[in-house]
Sequence to fold (114 residues):
Amino acid sequence: MSDHPAAPVEAFEPPYYVAIFTTVRTEEQSGYGETNARMEELVQEIPGYLGMDHAQTPGGLSITVGYFRDADALTRWRTDTEHRAAQQRGRDEWYRSYTLHVAKVERSHGFTRA
Fold:
């Protein structure tokens, strides 16, 4: 992932949707960084995209949470031709395993220390 700020995406007024993508990558990562940067650029063009959080453990587990205003925005992202090609390359080369969870957020709040 690109250099994300050390702060979570803000809490939005529900309802909205989240896509939680959890991965363990393979040793072969040729082209991953460039493709990942392009996907981050591309998703920002989707009307209704709200933001992204990302974290990675020292053991290699990576979690990315994408936030979307509505189901249509999420569908646009899921079906984007360039994103679909990156998904296939991920299955073919970059991911040892992954899970994807999609949920509708019904409650959301946040806290920031002053």
Summary: The mean pLDDT is 94. Residues 16-105 form a domain with the Alpha-Beta Plaits fold (CATH 3.30.70.100). Residues 81-94 form the longest helix (14 residues). The beta strands are 16-25, 49-56, 61-68, 95-105.
